[in-house]
Every structure is written in structure tokens, then in C-alpha cells.
Specification:
Helices cover 93% and strands 0% of the residues. The chain is mostly helical. It has one domain (3-74).
Length: 81
């Protein structure tokens, strides 16, 4: 796999992760609406906490991928000079 292919693959993963993060936010909204309608809040609270944690983990992963991508592109620019 060439460096350009790796860069494209990382960009694709980042795009998919951004969709996943948006999905986490939508799921959190749905759980919050359910929380208002049900008496069994303990399970929903736990689910919301886990969902928030997963969302933060996904954001951290995207940030790491962005950093790698920036460094990979910077290295390409330096090599071209």
C-alpha cells in the first residue's frame, strides 16, 4: 500500500467515524426522550453514560487520525521541497 493509499484510507475512516459520532448524538437524543417516558431510568442512565463514553472515544480516535494525516501530508510536503 502506498503512502497516498494509506492517506486515502485514513480519510475514509475519519469520514465514517464522523458519521458514527453523529449517530451517537442522535442515539443520545432518543435515549433522553425515552428517559422522560419511562420509570426505569437506571438502565437508560447507564446506556447514556456508555454512549457518551463511546462518543468521546470515537472523537479521540478521529483526533489521532487527523494528527497522523497532518503529519503524513507535512512529510509529503517536506519531501517535495
Amino acid at each position: 500500500m502506498t503512502k497516498e493509499q494509506r492517506i486515502q484510507a485514513v480519510q475514509h475512516v475519519m469520514d465514517e467515524a464522523e458519521i458514527l459520532i453523529a449517530g451517537f448524538a442522535e442515539m443520545a437524543d432518543i435515549l433522553a426522550a425515552l428517559d422522560d417516558k419511562t420509570a426505569n431510568e437506571a438502565y437508560l442512565g447507564t446506556a447514556q453514560d456508555r454512549l457518551a463514553s463511546a462518543k468521546e472515544s470515537a472523537k479521540a480516535a478521529v483526533a489521532a487520525l487527523r494528527q497522523w494525516l497532518k503529519e503524513a501530508k507535512d512529510n509529503d510536503n517536506d519531501a517535495g521541497d
